[in-house]
Design goal:
- By secondary structure, the chain is mainly α.
- It has one domain: Cd81 Antigen, Extracellular Domain, Chain: A.
- The chain contains 8 helices and no strands.
Length: 244
């Protein structure tokens, strides 16, 4: 029996070591992804031209999800170190705390991604905001500031009006030169609401992808931590029985 017990104990020790170091590696990867997520979200928030466009269009609600992801990415960077330490120390209390942070991180990352997509995709809450602002600029396009804003957006994005050239035609206004392709001279068919939304969607695509990847890693790390806790408890029970 002594030989059998020793073999079982050795096998359990190997399993704990395997789970422990795999969890350590996953935490390093999670830290890298959290750092990349933090860098991208801060860059998006701080980008001067992009920020100016959202301010002019009164669509700064776009940043709600970005703020959530910035905060969560900072927490996840710190939590990754907790995961590494708790795994290496095989401390069950620290591992349970880590499991709780992984659950929180998963929920927060999914919520942040959902809010970000809610303000950056087609048929999202962003489009009505853009529509109101752009229609206001079109209806007052005779004023210098409105004309400047429309020219800047239409030339850079390649669009016309809020929903298309008919926004100008319905108001009996001539199509501005910024509404036409410089090569063909034809009017841009798509309105700026859709074009801007596609532009914003491209900006947030990588951010949401990173956030969801990190959320998936949270599930994996949380599950592995729970397995490690059970293995450590079993090892402690075996050690206790052996002492008896």
């Amino acid at each position: 029996m002594g030989i059998g017990y020793g073999a079982s104990d050795e096998q359990l020790e190997k399993q704990i070591g395997c789970v422990k170091y795999t969890l350590f590696c996953f935490n390093i990867v999670a830290w890298m992804i959290a750092t990349a997520l933090f860098a991208l979200t801060v860059w998006l928030r701080a980008e001067p031209g992009f920020n100016d466009w959202l301010r002019i269009l009164e669509a700064q609600s776009f940043y709600i999800g970005v703020y959530v992801l910035i905060g969560v990415s900072i927490i996840m960077m710190a939590v990754s170190f907790l995961g590494c330490l708790s795994a290496l120390m095989e401390n069950t209390l620290a591992l349970f705390v880590f499991i709780g942070t992984q659950l929180f991180g998963f929920v927060a990352l999914v919520a942040g991604s959902a809010v970000t997509m809610q303000y950056s995709t087609i048929n999202s809450s962003l489009q009505p905001l853009l529509n109101v602002s752009l229609r206001r600029f079109v209806s007052t396009s005779e004023y210098t500031y409105s004309n400047y804003v429309l020219t800047m957006i239409q030339e850079n994005i390649g669009c016309c009006g809020a929903t298309g050239p008919w926004d100008y035609l319905d108001l009996h206004q001539p199509l501005p030169s910024s509404c036409r392709d410089t090569v063909s001279g034809n009017a841009f068919f798509n309105g700026c609401v859709d074009e801007l939304t596609w532009f914003f969607e491209g900006k947030t695509g990588w951010i949401v992808a990173l956030a969801m990847t990190l959320a998936m890693l949270n599930v994996i790390c949380g599950t592995m931590s729970f397995v490690l806790v059970q293995a450590v408890k079993k090892e402690e029970e075996q050690a206790s029985n052996y002492r008896r």
